[in-house]
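fyi for ur records
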Amino acid sequence: MLTLDKLKEYGADTEDALARCMGKEDFYLMLVGKAVEDSNFKSLRDAIETKDYDGAFSAAHALKGIVSNLSLTPLSKPVIEITELLRSRTDTDYTELLADIDEQKSRLEELMSG
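which gave:
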């Protein structure tokens, strides 16, 4: 079960996120759960694989807003980095950033199930 303590250990700025959620812990935890399931993670990967940089930017930008507003700092760092590269439609190897995003997302999923 996901808790604020687990999210703090993960590196999330839970105080900042709770302020955005008007102090409603249950609401915040529910939003974190929904964020991890967001379809933009798959959309980002699929768009990069097909070099659809407009679609990849759109997915990355949406994820950036979600994870940043929830103060999921370890996940927001690679998402912000990939968003900025995609903003200029940079044709580069995104493998390392995608792996970092996947790793941070997996860590969150483990927190939710453990």
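The radius of gyration is 14 Å. thats all i got for now
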